[in-house]
Every structure is written in C-alpha cells, then in structure tokens.
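#help-structures

NK: newbie question. if I give both the sequence and a SMILES, will the prediction place the ligand too? trying with flavin-adenine dinucleotide
OV: yes, paste both and it writes out the complex. here, I ran yours:
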Amino acid sequence: MKPAPFEYHRPRSVADAVATLGDYPGTARVLAGGQSLVPMLNMRLWRPDAIVDINEIDELDDIVADGDRVTIGSLVRYSTVERSSLLARRLPLLPRIVRHIGDRQVRNRGTVGGALVHADPTGELPLACLTLDAVVVAAGPEGVRRIPVDELYEGSYATAVDPRELVVAVEFPPPAEAVAFRELCRKHNDFAVVSVAAAGSRDDGGRWRDVRIALGGVADTPVLATASADRLEGTELRDADVAAASDAALEVADPPSDIRASAEYRRHLLPVYVRRVLTELRESHARQAWGEGTP
Ligand SMILES: Cc1cc2nc3c(=O)[nH]c(=O)nc-3n(C[C@H](O)[C@H](O)[C@H](O)COP(=O)(O)OP(=O)(O)OC[C@H]3O[C@@H](n4cnc5c(N)ncnc54)[C@H](O)[C@@H]3O)c2cc1C
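OV: that's the protein plus ligand as structure tokens.
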C-alpha cells in the first residue's frame, strides 16, 4: 500500500522543526529513522497532514560526555550506539542492548529518539533508558522541558511527549557500577516476549545500593519492578534475596496475550528472567572486582 497524501518538510534546525510542528497542531508526524513510521504510513494506520523529516538537523546527532553525565542526541542511530567507544565505557548497557534490535538495516536507520517516542512496550532502548534512569529532553512551543523516562510512558505506544514537541536528546545520570540484561525472543532479534534489565552498585561492605530493575513485554509499557528493587536494597544479593525479588516482580506484571506468547507464559517467564538478570548483575560485579585487583 501507499501512504495517504501529506505535506513534506525538511527543517535544518530544531527551532524550524518546532515551528513547523506548530503549524499542524497535533496532525504532523516527525520522521527520524522511519523504521516504524513508514510502515504505519504505508498501511494507512496513520494519516498525518504533514511529515517533518529531521534527518538534516545536525545538532541532534551527537553523543556528549559532560563530567559523569552523558547526553545522546535523538537522531543518533542504533548502529552508532553499538559502535561508540564512549558508550561502551560509560553506559555499556546501551551498546549491548541495541544489538538485540532488528537486523543491521533497522539498526543503521533506527534512532534513539524514534525508539523512545514510538514506545513499543517490548522495545529494548526504552527498557535500557528506564533502567539507567534517563531523562528525555523535548523542545516545544513553550521551550525545553525534561521528562524522566519513568514518567514518559502513558500506555501502549503512547507517551507524554506532545505532538508539537520534538525530542532532541536523552540525558543519562552517572552510571551504576554493574548492569545486566536478558530477553527471550521467538527467534534471533525478533521483538522480545519478555525482557529484563538491571543496574546497581555495591558499597565497600558488599551491600547493593540503588538497584533498578526494568521489565519489558509484561505490561502495556516498560515498567520498573520497584518492589523487587526495594527488597534488594542493602542486601548482598544472596540467592534468597534474588529469589524473593524475582517473585516480587510479578506485582507489576499485567502481561498481554498476543501472537508471540500468552499472558500465562509471560507470567511464568518473568521471575525466571529476573532471577537470571540479578544473578548476572551479582556475577558481573564480582568479575569486575576480581579483574581490577588482578595484575
Ligand atoms: C524489521 C524490523 C524489526 C524491528 N525489530 C525491533 C526490535 O527487535 N526491537 C525494537 O525495539 N524495535 C524494533 N523495530 C523498531 C525500530 O526499533 C524502530 O526503528 C524504532 O522503534 C523507531 O525508530 P525510528 O528512528 O525508525 O523512528 P520513526 O519510525 O521515524 O518514528 C517512530 C515514531 O516516533 C516519532 N518520532 C521519531 N523521532 C522523534 C523525535 N525526535 N521527536 C518526536 N517524535 C519522534 C515519529 O513521529 C513516530 O511516531 C524493528 C523495526 C523493523 C522494521
């Protein structure tokens, strides 16, 4: 199928893009990598009056470290994240997780901002940003505002970003010491059936602090397993702590039944995957500590 007719705009600055979006209040769509938007247009599931193509806006393309914080421009491609040595050092969950997205073609075009706004409940990038406590920066007619990713998602494929706003970047606070990730897909790099990511740090006494666990595929948005994380605060992540936290993850799960899996199967998988991720978190930290002390 072909898309319904639309006006096409290719602004060269954020200010121009926001002004153009303002000319079509609520009826224009931003085009970034096009990996989700173009199929929606072709199937006529979306019929916007205008497309605002942001691919010529250079200021959206950077990855910048400022002290212990990192900012990634919204137009940065998955493949750039995958290859970035800065991100490998500072936010290793990101290069690791994007390797699970689609195929090479999708990763060469798909963008960080597009993934966050598209809001697929199984999307790997939203899951990672939620785990890492990231903040989305959006520019709109009233100026710039910051939306924590844990306040971004309002429902399946729905965000707090106003249609007149352009997501310009995502900001990451100082990273946790250890991260872990697991997902189950029906086939390699398919959309996930269930995905789990976690981050946390250990104090000098070996007790875990600030653990965050994010879940994908078990609700209509990515969700934080706060009850699980609370149970781990100040523990040594012993097997009994991990088991209790894994079961507690079910408290926030309200999984769908769809072509990939039944709700029942997802509920079965969730504690299993949380346990694997927390075990990996504990072991990755142990490996790191061993490596640092070894000549
Ligand atoms: C074959 C295939 C396999 C895939 N597999 C996976 C997978 O395994 N995991 C996964 O997570 N995803 C997968 N995807 C989806 C892919 O990640 C999408 O590219 C991504 O979700 C959207 O990014 P994009 O840059 O292509 O955005 P686009 O398609 O250009 O836009 C998506 C939506 O976001 C809006 N938008 C884009 N950028 C901005 C911005 N800066 N500000 C405001 N709104 C904006 C658009 O208007 C649109 O509503 C797959 C896609 C394909 C085609």
